[in-house]
Structures are given as C-alpha cells and as structure tokens.
Design goal:
This protein has 600 residues and is α/β, with parallel strands linked by helices. The chain is 35% helix and 22% strand. The strands form five sheets. Strands 3-2-4-1-10-9-11-14 form an eight-stranded antiparallel sheet, covered by helices on one side. A six-stranded antiparallel sheet has the order 5-6-7-8-12-13. Strand 19, helix 12 and strand 20 form a beta-alpha-beta unit. The radius of gyration is 25 Å and the shape is globular. It binds 6-O-phosphono-alpha-D-glucopyranose. The site of 6-O-phosphono-alpha-D-glucopyranose has 16 residues, from helix 10.
Length: 600
C-alpha cells in the first residue's frame, strides 16, 4: 500500500529519498512526506498530492540521514496532519509506517490519559507516542518495548533527535528490506526504491528490528545477503508481467487486510468502526438498497443473497446508471449502500447525491480513503485492499465481498442471527485468505486450461444462487481483458434462451461447488453435454464424480455457501487473465475502458 524509503550514509539524503520515493509512485498514493535529520536545521516536509506538483519548489536540505513515505490513506482522511512522518509530543521522534495498527484506538485512549497529545487521526501516530513513552536514551530499546504493545501489521523506520546518527527499522507482516550500498545503507518497503543504488539487500523477517548507522548496521540475528535479479520495471510489478496478475496473486494479503481486527469470533460479530456512529439507526432499517457499477455491482449481487439469507433484510441491487433515471419507489426505512473501489464513479456518485437529498441513510463500501463516495456518505467501511492499478478489478472485488459478509454479520447479529451462526460465518471468513492462497497455487494448471481453450471466441458462464453473480463476474472479466464474447447466466434460465447458443464451439464454465443447488447445476451441465457443449467445472475438492461429466475441472476448497464467491472468483480471474495474455491483449489497460469512470 504505502511506500517507505530511508537513507543513511555520506551523501545528502534528500535527493536519494526523493528518487526512491518516485520509484514507489506506481503503487499509488495520495500524500507524501520527508524527514531529513540535520543537527542545525532538521527538515520536515509533508504534502497532500503528487510529488510532481511540488517538485519545482522543493527545498534543498542538508543532512545525510532521512526517511520518506508515500501514503495511501487507510485510517484517517487524506490530510497533511495524517501524512507521515508522524511525530511524538516533543517533536523528537520521526516515524514512517506501512500497515495497520489494529489496536490503535485502545492504545491512543490510554496514551491520552497518560498525557500524550495527538495531532492526527492516523493509527501510525500511536507508535511515536509509545516509543516516546519507553525511550530512555536508546532508540532501538524504545522501539522494542513499544512494539510489544502493538497488534497488527507494520514496517517502520524511525529517527530520534535524542539518539541521532541512526535509523531504527522493524517489521511485522509488512515488507521491509535493507539495501547495503557502498558507504551507505537504505531501507525500503519495495526493492524498486533501492535498485538504482544497490542490488545487495537483506529482507527483514517478522519481528526483526535492525539498526542502521552511517558505517554499519546490525539486526538481532545474522542474515544472508541476497541479490535482486529484477529489472526496475519488473520490480514495480514484483516480478509479475502485469499488474493484473500481481493483484490477483495479492489476494491472500488484501483479504487479510480487509478482515484484520474486524472479526470477533467468539461473539460471532464484526467490529466495523466506521459504522459505529450510525449503529442505532441501522438497527431500525427495514430494507437495503445497494448501488454500484461494473464489477462492484457483481459483488453487490453476492451481498444481496447474503443479507437476505443471513441478516433477514430485504435487499435490492441496482447500477448507478439505471437508478439515477428510473423512478424507484423508496422506503423511508431503507439504508443505501454504495460500493465503489475508486469512490469516484460518476453514476454511483449521482445516485448517492440523489439519495442524500431525500434524507435517507447512506453507507459507503470503498477502497480509496477520502474519495468522493467516502466523503459524501453518512458512514462506511473501507475495504483496505490496497491500490489497484489494473483496469480490471480483482483484489478489490474479493475484498468487497468479504466486507459485505462482515456487514451481514454486523447487521444480522443485531437482528435475529443466532450466535452459533455468527461464529460459524466469522470462523469461515477468517479462513478465506489461506484458502485463496491454496487456489492460487493452481495458476500453472489454469494457464494450461487457457491455452487449451484459447481458440474459442464464445463462452457461457453459469451458476445458481451465490454462484450466479460469480458467473456474471467470470464472463465480465474475460470480456474485459481477452475481448472474448461471454455470457454470465443463471443456471436455471439456460433452458429459456441461452441453451440455443450451445454447440461444440461454445464452451461453458459451470460454477458448481457442492452446495444446496449442486444437483440442479448437474442437470444444467447435462443439458449442455447432450448438446455437445464443452464444460469446465469449478467444483469442490474431493468431488471425483464431476470428472465423469465435465471436460475439465478446477477444484476449490469447501467453505460456507455464502463465501464461495470469494474462492470461485479466483480461478475465473486467472482464466481471464491468461486468456487475455495469450491473445496478446493489453490486459492491464483494455481498449476503450478506464479504471475510474468519472464521467457519465
Ligand atoms: C470501471 C472499471 C471497472 C469497475 C467499474 C466501477 O468500469 O473498469 O473495473 O468495476 O468502473 O468502478 P468503481 O471504482 O466504482 O468500483
């Protein structure tokens, strides 16, 4: 998500930090900041916006030690106050951070009681005050003691005016590496930030703390030197040929971020801080309307099934472009949920403005912090899936669905959902990042499948119940990135129309996990087979029978029926990606499409 660069050596730090930060720009950011330590004139510089907007007027600080950060807001709006580096009360500790401090609210309350003064809403600031609390002259000791209290994920780099001439860095579940140069040391969250200065790096492991000094460094244990083999442009994509593949592969991590600190397993409940302000009002709502466009609308359709089945709330989904022009009959006891990765889609925003004027409750499920949908809604939940660069949405979709599952728990448990049911959903939801990781291991087989089917120009995708939106999204993905015609159809509707299309040239992807509609799906597959249609089945592990019927099978692990879309989407995203790549399409930027459609 965010980016960290740090430098300590014999050269002016600022230009080196600046060039490192620019190498991290591809990841997306909304604000940036620097701290360069110089005993005479310490330099702190933070801005909202892009580096290029300010570059002409950058000062030229001296100082050979410094840290820098590009922020992509997750906790707290996009403001200068929330931008890193963050500081302690006495403005002596300077810190940059990637990750999420899950227990920051509790820590902050305690530190305020102890007399600490906070100047931002960002979770990171608690780290500065904690280090201040434990600092007794040695920075690494202060950091070590502070981190014992922290829950969550972090990669940090810290400088203290009271223990200068060093940068202390630490990591837990957020990447951080040391760059070992000639007479200089760097720290970065991503190899691309150090690659122009050195290829000798040490990747820090979880719970490790390292101390960087001008002429040496130490970690709490010995670590081997590694050499980065990537070219710069490969480093930006972490070695993947396309952002889309990188983002598909990041889903175990993005889902974990979505769920982090939000699942209360024993209470069978979800903790959604962003909805607290409106909790009482939400308890009284009788209906939900979800508005979204494109892929986000498919996530919304999954939400419709979840919210009706488990939270017992009548739910209706519409696309922004339709909603704004039809004359819907609105219920005054309804709440409106707006789902948007970017938070800037014009049609979604227009519907939101219309609903606001009518005085109804509005909620946002958004990825980009401080975006228009996030700002305009009464309350909401950030999906925290990190910047998505490829036009075709992948990791944001699975995080949107996971967030809708959290919302189902949150609303359902305040209504009639039983504790055991809540616990079961929470437990299964917690497992999804691991299950997704397992599915991703099948990427080479799915690539082979895409090769086998690459000459077909038409595909049918079918599913029932929760797997119907999955079928829609599977078809959507292959259309977007491989320019292949595809239909996403309800299994039960096939016989009313689409069956007419089926022949040996029109293969079907059937999403048929072992669930309440499995038998019905088998009948649909049989209808296709007798018409000479080829079938790729997405089925539950252990189902050997399906091999007798389908031409090819992709297995996914067992989970709750309502969570199946999170798993079943993974192979469909990979199949679309490889189909597009094999056809030589520009998968990251499909023709005629844009990542964020800010015009009608
Ligand atoms: C565009 C993008 C899609 C995205 C849709 C909605 O069409 O190409 O990938 O699903 O907009 O975007 P949003 O940012 O509102 O989720």
């Amino acid at each position: 998500m965010c980016g960290i660069v740090g430098y300590i050596g014999k050269k002016p730090a600022f230009p080196i930090l600046l060039s490192g930060l620019k190498r991290l720009e591809y990841r997306g950011y909304d604000s940036f900041g620097f701290f360069v330590f110089d005993e005479e004139k310490p330099f702190l510089f933070k801005k909202v916006g892009k580096i290029s907007q300010f570059e002409q007027n950058f000062p030229n600080p001296s100082g050979e030690i410094g840290i820098a950060h590009t922020r992509w807001a997750t906790t707290g709006e996009v403001t200068e106050a929330n931008t890193h580096p963050h500081l302690d009360c006495h403005k002596e500790i300077f810190l940059v951070h990637n990750g999420i401090i899950e227990n920051y609210q509790d820590l902050k309350a305690k530190l305020i009681q102890e007399g600490h003064k906070f100047t931002s809403e960002c979770d990171t600031e608690v780290l500065c005050h904690l280090i201040e609390k434990y600092f007794e002259g040695n920075l690494e000791e202060g950091v070590r003691k502070a981190l014992r209290e922290v829950k969550g994920a972090y990669g940090i780099a810290v400088i203290s005016k009271k223990d200068p001439e060093k940068i202390v860095v630490a990591r837990l579940s957020s990447p951080l590496l040391l760059g070992i140069g000639n007479d200089e040391l760097l720290v970065a969250s991503d190899p691309s930030a150090v690659i122009t200065r050195t290829r000798q790096v040490i990747n820090l492991d979880d719970n490790e703390i390292a101390v960087l000094k001008p002429d040496n460094f130490f970690i709490l244990k010995e670590k081997p030197l590694e050499t980065i083999e990537w070219k710069i442009e490969e480093a930006e994509k972490k070695g993947y040929p396309h952002f889309m593949l990188k983002e598909i592969m990041e889903q175990p991590e993005s889902l974990e971020n979505t769920l982090k600190g939000r699942l209360l397993i024993s209470e069978g409940m979800a903790k959604l801080g962003g909805l607290e302000v409106i909790r009482d009002k939400l308890r009284k709502i009788k209906r939900l309307n979800i508005i979204a466009c494109g892929t986000a609308r498919h996530a919304a359709l999954v939400g419709e099934y979840m919210l009706e089945e488990y939270a017992n709330i009548p739910t209706e989904v519409d696309s922004g472009s339709e909603f704004r022009y039809r004359k819907p009959v609105l219920d005054k006891d309804a709440a409106f949920v707006f789902i948007s990765q970017s938070g800037e889609t014009a049609d979604t925003l227009a519907a939101l403005k219309d609903i606001k004027q009518r005085g109804l409750i509005t909620l946002g499920i958004v990825n980009v912090i401080g975006s228009s949908v996030a700002r305009e809604t009464d309350a909401g939940v950030y999906i925290r899936s990190g910047p998505e660069i490829a036009v075709a949405s992948t990791k944001a979709t699975t995080s949107q669905i996971a967030t809708l599952a959290l919302l189902t728990l949150f609303l359902g448990r305040q209504k009639e959902m039983a504790l055991v049911m809540g616990q079961r959903i929470a437990r299964e939801l917690e497992k999804t990042p691991k299950l997704v990781k397992k599915i991703l291991e099948q990427a080479p087989q799915i690539k082979k499948l895409a090769e086998k089917y690459k000459t077909f120009n038409n595909f049918m995708y079918i599913g029932r119940k929760y797997d119907y939106p999955t079928a829609r999204e599977g078809a959507h993905k292959i259309k977007e990135v491989a320019y292949v015609h595809a239909e996403g159809c309800r299994g039960g509707e096939l016989k009313h129309c689409e069956l007419a299309l089926i022949n040996e040239d029109f293969p079907t992807v059937a999403i048929c996990p072992s669930n309440s509609v499995y038998e019905k799906m088998i009948s649909n597959i049989e209808e296709i087979k007798v018409r000479n249609g080829l079938v790729i089945a997405v089925a539950t592990e252990g189902n050997e029978d399906i091999k007798k019927l389908a031409d090819d099978v992709i297995y996914i692990p067992k989970t709750l029926e309502m969570l199946t879309p999170i798993l079943a989407l993974i192979p469909l995203q990979l199949f679309a990606y490889y189909s597009g790549a094999l056809r030589g399409c520009n998968v990251d930027k499909p023709r005629n499409l844009a990542k964020s459609v800010t015009v009608e």
